[in-house]
Structure formats: structure tokens, C-alpha cells
């Protein structure tokens, strides 16, 4: 497979038509059609269903689209890294991370670097730990910011200062909103919305699960989430109570929602991680050195 042809295929998937893709690629329609047919022959799979007005992907086509996006992203990232090797430090840095107020520490380093190296560009990807580590392992991200609990065995890491506080986001008209904090006994019988990452039992030590003193499975988890924005919508709709981190949901005076911390207090640390034995571009190496200067003890 040629990268050029994969880009052609992605253009067709994006445009939903061969004519539209040909126009965007500045190719003739017969040329593009022939390239796609050759790709199907090479893979021995039908990739496209050609309708009268629209082209749709077969299941095999959808699989190729995901792989092609990853391949093209990796190629473009590699090209950018080599283009950045010069006396002037430039290039792109790719960082993934979950939702956390502690991302402000990463923002401080980015601001400092951009002041001195304006040709370095940063690209942030939001996702849970599973999403971020998958992209790290595939080489699509240089760094990941992971909220505990998470298994760090495969990565080098720096623990960031500050901790996130766990609590419950609820409607202000909830009976529980009259309390200053939420205890385990308060949660029995309530419809709960929980983080899939926090619920995972694969980490060697999961302080989130331990807080529930072996009672987590007996609680009523009605929904799970990977990022908190959708959880806030469900809480507003009256679906349940979201157990999540502080400072991620609007709980201002005008909001319908409020946050109450757990008691005993439960906190999570954050780590910025990267693959062991990673070979960095000059820009990414500079970023890592700045992180070590600022946060390593």
C-alpha cells in the first residue's frame, strides 16, 4: 500500500463521494476510481459500496479507514520531526490527557517554551487513560497525562504537583446537596454515574475502589463515562449522581449543579508519561527537559 493511495481512500471516506474526493484531490474521477479499484484488489476486500449519489464504507472499509488514519498520522508526524532537525528548534509536540485541573501545570511549561521557541507547536488530545496509552503505544502521542489509578509499568514518568479531589456532582435540588460532604453510607440506593477508568481493577493499587471498602459492587451504577462532560448532562437530566473529580463541572451560582467532596477525603495524583527508551524529536526532547527542570525533585 502506498501512503498516497491511503490518502485518496481517506478523502473518499471523508467526502462520501468519488466525485467530491477527486475534486478535493485535483484528480480526474477515472484516475481516482482506478486507484481505489487497485487498492481493493491488493487487499482482496471490497472497501466501498458505490451508490447512485453516495459512497459508503463496507465493514472492511471502516477497518481500513481507522488504520489508514493512524498510518497517515504517523507518517506526517515522522516527516515533521525530521524537518524540525535544524539549528532552530521547531516542530510539533503531541500530548494526550484526561480532564483535570492539574493540566494547568502542563500549560505553564507550554507557555514558557512558546515564549522562547515560537516555532514549536503543541497538539493536545483529550481522552481517558485507555485512549491516551493506546495512542502513546502506537507512537501517535509523545506524552500522556494520566490520572491515577493507572498502571505505569510500561512508561517513564514524572509526577505532577497537586492532586485532584474526588466527590459527587449532583443537582442543587438533590437532598444530598444539603450536606457538606458525601460518605459511603449516603451512596447506597442512589443511581450513580462512574468513571470506567477509575472502576478498573487492573492497576496494582486502586485507591478509588479501596475507598468503597469492598462495597463498590453493591452500589447502583446506572451509567459509566470516560470524560465528565456527558456525565454533567446526565446529572442535569436527573439520571443520577456523578462520582468524579473537582473543578471539571460548572458548579457556579448560575449552574443547576453542585459538587460535594467524599469523606474520608480521596485524592488522585497525576503523572506525565512517555514510552521507555523513546527517541524524541528535538522539540519533544526540549519539552521533556523543561518538565524535568520544573517538576523533578
Structure description:
Helix content is 40%, strand content 23%. The protein has 297 residues and is an alpha/beta fold. The protein folds into three domains: 3-80, Winged helix-like DNA-binding domain superfamily/Winged helix DNA-binding domain (Arc Repressor Mutant, subunit A); 88-162 and 270-295, D-Maltodextrin-Binding Protein, domain 2; 164-267, Periplasmic binding protein-like II (D-Maltodextrin-Binding Protein, domain 2, 3-Layer(aba) Sandwich). The strands form three sheets. Strands 7, 8, 9, 10, 11 and 12 form a six-stranded mixed β-sheet that branches. A five-stranded mixed β-sheet has the order 4-3-5-13-6, with helices on both faces. A two-stranded antiparallel ribbon has the order 1-2. β3 (91-97), α5 and β4 form a beta-alpha-beta unit. α1 (3-15) crosses α2 (18-25) and α1 crosses α4. The longest helix is centred in the first third of the chain and has 25 residues, at 59-83. The termini are far apart. The model has no long low-confidence stretch (mean pLDDT 89).
Amino acid at each position: 500500500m502506498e501512503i498516497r493511495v491511503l490518502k485518496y481512500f481517506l478523502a473518499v471516506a471523508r467526502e462520501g463521494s468519488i466525485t467530491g474526493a477527486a475534486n478535493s484531490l485535483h484528480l480526474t474521477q477515472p484516475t481516482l476510481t482506478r486507484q481505489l479499484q487497485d487498492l481493493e484488489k491488493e487487499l482482496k476486500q471490497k472497501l466501498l459500496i458505490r451508490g447512485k449519489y453516495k459512497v459508503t464504507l463496507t465493514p472492511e472499509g471502516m477497518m481500513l479507514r481507522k488504520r489508514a488514519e493512524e498510518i497517515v498520522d504517523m507518517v506526517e508526524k515522522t516527516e515533521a520531526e525530521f524537518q524540525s532537525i535544524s539549528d532552530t528548534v521547531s516542530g510539533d509536540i503531541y500530548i494526550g490527557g484526561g480532564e483535570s485541573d492539574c493540566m494547568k501545570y502542563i500549560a505553564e511549561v507550554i507557555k514558557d517554551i512558546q515564549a522562547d521557541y515560537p516555532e514549536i507547536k503543541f497538539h493536545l488530545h483529550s481522552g481517558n487513560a485507555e485512549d491516551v496509552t493506546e495512542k502513546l503505544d502506537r507512537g501517535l502521542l509523545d506524552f500522556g497525562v494520566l490520572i491515577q489509578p493507572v498502571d505505569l509499568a510500561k512508561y517513564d514518568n514524572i509526577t505532577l504537583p497537586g492532586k485532584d479531589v474526588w466527590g459527587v456532582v449532583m443537582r442543587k435540588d438533590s437532598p444530598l446537596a444539603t450536606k457538606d460532604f458525601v460518605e459511603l453510607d449516603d451512596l447506597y440506593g442512589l443511581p450513580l454515574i462512574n468513571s470506567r477508568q477509575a472502576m478498573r481493577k487492573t492497576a496494582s493499587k486502586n485507591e478509588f475502589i479501596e475507598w468503597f471498602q469492598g462495597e463498590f459492587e453493591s452500589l447502583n451504577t446506572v451509567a459509566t463515562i470516560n470524560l465528565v462532560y456527558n456525565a454533567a448532562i446526565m446529572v442535569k437530566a436527573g439520571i443520577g449522581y456523578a462520582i468524579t473529580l473537582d473543578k471539571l463541572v460548572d458548579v457556579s451560582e448560575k449552574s443547576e449543579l453542585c459538587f460535594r467532596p467524599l469523606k474520608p477525603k480521596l485524592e488522585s495524583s497525576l503523572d506525565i508519561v512517555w514510552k521507555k527508551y523513546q527517541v524524541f524529536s528535538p522539540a519533544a526532547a526540549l519539552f521533556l527537559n523543561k518538565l524535568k527542570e520544573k517538576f523533578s525533585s
